[in-house]
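Hi everyone, sorry if this is the wrong subforum. Our group has a chain we'd like a structural model of before ordering constructs, and none of us has done structure prediction before. Sequence below.
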Amino acid sequence: MRASSLAGPRAGGSSESELQDQRPTDNGKTRQDVDTTLNFDVALSLVRFCSRTTIRTLMQTCRALYEEGVRCLLADVTIHGAAQLGPFLAFLNAGDDVRFRSLCALRLSFQNPQSPPPEVVEQLLRAIPKMTALESLEIDCSNLLWEYPALNDAFAALRSLRNLKAVLWNAANLPLVTHAQSPIRSIHVDSSVEEEPGVLFQSFSSTLEEIWYFQRTAGLSTPLRLTTRPPDRPPPIYPKVWKMNLGGMTPPRTIEYVKTFPNLTHLILDLTHPYSDLDGPRSEALEILEQHRMANREDASSAPYWTHLQCYRGYVADLYLLAIRCPIHEVDLHELFEDELELLAAVLEDVRPKHLTLRISHRTLNNLATTRLVMSGAFQLDRLHLTVKLKGDPADINPYALTVGAIIELQQVGA
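Answer:
Right subforum, don't worry. Here is the predicted structure as C-alpha cells:
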C-alpha cells in the first residue's frame, strides 16, 4: 500500500518544470518515472516523530493515520487541573480498551485544591485497571489522593509501572508507594512523612535502580540519630540501586546505607542538620557534626564497606559527617565557606578524588596557607575545576593571580 501524492495534475499544457521532469536522468529514466511515493508503513512510523499539532492534522486524512495518531498522542499525557480530567477519560472510553493500552506516560498535576466531581473520580477508578501499558506515572495532587484514598490503592495495583514520581503530603498517601505491585526502577518522592527510603520503597527493592527522595519533616533542630537500626529491624537490600539523591532529611547512618544499597555508585545529598543553619551557633553545630562523624567512623572499622563510589555531589559538611572511607572518583561540592576548609581537608583525605569541583570565595582562596591545607589531601587529583566567586572592590581582586596561586600550591603538594 502506498501513500498518494498530495499534489494532483494541473489542467492545460505542460509547464517549464514539467518539461524539466521529462528529461532523462543518468540511468535513462525521466524524472516522472522515478517513484517518489513513500511506503505506508514507513509513513506510519514517521508519525511518532511529528509534533502534537502535526499529528492532529494527520489524523484527519485517513483511518490508519487517525489510529496511529491516537497511539502517539497517548504515549505521553499531562493533565493540568481537574477540569481536564473528565474530557480525557471520555476520550479514553471512546475507543473501548484499545486507547487505554496505548497510554504509556501520565502526569496528573492539580495545583487547584478543588477536586473533580465524584462521578469523574469514579470514572478514573474504573479506568486505572485498564491502563495495562502505563510505564511512567507522575502524581502531584495529594489533596485528591487524600480525599479519595481508593485512588492510592488503584494506582498501587498496577503492574506495568517502571517510573513513579509522587508528592506525598500525609500518611494517607503512603499506600501509593508502600503497596506498589509494579517492578519500579526509578522513584521520585517529595514527602511530608518521616520515613527512611530503605523502608518506604521495600515493596520493589529488588528492581529499584534510582532514588530521588526529598523529606520535608526534618528541621534544623531535629536531633541526629547516633544509634544504628535495632537488630530486629534488619534493613532490606536494594541490589540494583546505583544512584541516590537525598534532600531535606536528617543524616543517615552510613553503615546502614552501605548494607541497604551495596552497589551504590552516585550519591547526591542536601541534608538537614544544625550545621546547615548558617545563622546558628557554628561551634555547637560543629560538635554535633563531629559526634556523628565519629560514630560513622567506628561503624566503618568493623563491617563490610563500599569499595568505591563514582560520584558525590553536595555540601562538604554532609560528606564530612558521613565519614565515607572509600575512594570517590568525582567530588562536586557546593559553595565552600572559610570555616569549612578544615572539613574539606579531612574529606579529601577520606575519599581521595580524581576529579574535584570547588566553588569558593576569593577571600578564602587568597589565603595560600589555607589553600595548602585544603590541597594537602588532594595529591591524587587529575582534574580540578575551580570557580571563584568575586565580591567587593575589583581593585582588591586579582582572580588570575589567585587561581594561579592555588594551582602552584597544588603542584607543590603533588610534588
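For your construct planning: Residues 282-300 form the longest helix (19 residues). DSSP finds 18 helices and twelve strands in the chain.
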